[in-house]
Specification:
- The chain is mostly helical and about 70 residues long.
- The protein has 5 helices and no strands.
- About 75% of the residues lie in helices and about 0% in strands.
- The longest helix is centred in the C-terminal third of the chain and has 15 residues, at about 50-65.
- It has a single domain, classed as YjbJ (Protein Yjbj, Chain: A, Orthogonal Bundle).
Length: about 70
């Protein structure tokens, strides 16, 4: 799956993202707009993870949910 697919299905994915990362705000989700790098950046910012850890978390979430 590539980033275009994530963007195309973003409205359906928001709930799953919110369940995984409850600290993300609705404004964060609007800003992310399905962009993987933006999601990684917001997870890194909100949870204080390193960039590598945030990327690993996002990629794991995508694999688990087949996104």
């Amino acid at each position: 799956m590539d980033n275009r697919t994530l963007k195309g299905e973003w409205n359906q994915l928001k709930n799953s993202v919110k369940q995984k990362w409850a600290d993300l705000t609705d404004d964060d989700l609007t800003h992310i707009e399905g962009d993987r790098d933006r999601l990684v950046g917001r997870v890194q910012e909100r949870y204080g993870h390193s960039r590598a850890d945030a990327e690993r978390d996002v990629d794991e979430w995508r694999r688990e949910n087949q996104y």
